[in-house]
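User: Show me a protein chain along with its predicted structure.
Assistant: Here is one chain, sequence first, then structure tokens.
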Amino acid sequence: MRLDGKVALVTGGRGGIGRAICARFEREGATVYAADLSESGSLDEAGGAARFLRLDVASEDEARAAMARVDAEEGRLDILVNAAGIEIEKTIEETSLEEWNRSFAVNVTGTFLCSKHALPLLRKGAGANIVNFGSYDGFIADPGLAAYCATKGAVHALTRAMACDHGPEGIRVNAICPGYIDTPMLQSFFGGEGSGAGGKSIDELQQAVRDVHPTRTYGTPEDIANLVTWLASDEARYASGQLWVLDGGLSAQVQQMRL
């Protein structure tokens, strides 16, 4: 088992991708804490793998308390996965300052706070690592996702900085950059104005999205969990400071060639 004996904390651990990561980590032998706002998370159903830990990642007090609990129960932390995130489907003109600040509070400040207060625990082990969540939208942009794109670009830059600062301490830092993944966030996008629905049905939109991928499909939470598991394992001991795009080849193609 790749993560046998490791201690992990996954923010957004009751969401679609977070649950898949927690379940895979447990199968690989890790002790896992699923940190989220509620037991049901974005899937609106309680349960799931891992120990539940209530956490608002935008609150420094709660981030500090979460790490204190892990310290009291486990004495160390080997893996931190910053998977909590939100998406607002608006242009900058349509986005309120409150919405802009909330996007950065969860997606960027949450990554900062959880990483900051995890570092003392991560230093206690050997070969510890952090996996952040960026997005292919941090490289290129979908229309109507201005704040989301901005936050993911910030996470990419923060990941590189953290890898440089803490690599000498034996702590690796990487970011996963997913494309379209079958999660509640994606289904919300299909139903929102930002999807460019144009009167199309949800089924038509889903098929259209599959068709623009070279692989002719979009990803699953398990696809993401596979890559996160490798990055969190000792097999990836030389991998740090990188942005790992997992998007079915979507961002590799010249977009005009799809016309």
